[in-house]
Amino acid sequence: MNIWPIAQSSFKESMRQKILYVIVIFSFITILSALLYKTLAINQEVKLMKDVGLAAMVVLGVLVAIFTGTNSISREIDSKTIHTLLAKPVKRSEFVLGKFLGAGLTTLFNLAIMTIGFLIIVAIVEKGAPFYLLKAIVLTAVELLILVSASIFFSTIFPQAISTIFALLLFLVGHVTNLLPYLISKAETIGTKIIASIFYYLLPNLQYFNLRAEVVNNLSIPVSLILLTIIYGILYAAIGVVLSIFVIRGKDFA
Amino acid sequence: MNKIFFKWGIIPLCFIVLVLLLKPISLSIDDIRRIQGLERAVVATPNFGFDTILADILWVKAIQYLGGIPKITEVEGAVIYKMFDRITDLDPQFTEAYKLGGLTLSVEESEKAISLLEKGIINNKNIEWTVPYYASISAFFHLKDYKEAMRFLEIAVKAPDHPPHIDRLLATANNLAGYKELSLDMWQDIYKNAAQNYEKDLAYKNLVKLSEEIIQSHPDKDLKEKAKAMLKDVEIKR
Question: Which residue ranges form the domains of chain B, and what is each CATH number?
Answer without folding.
Answer: 47-145 (1.25.40), 163-238 (no CATH)
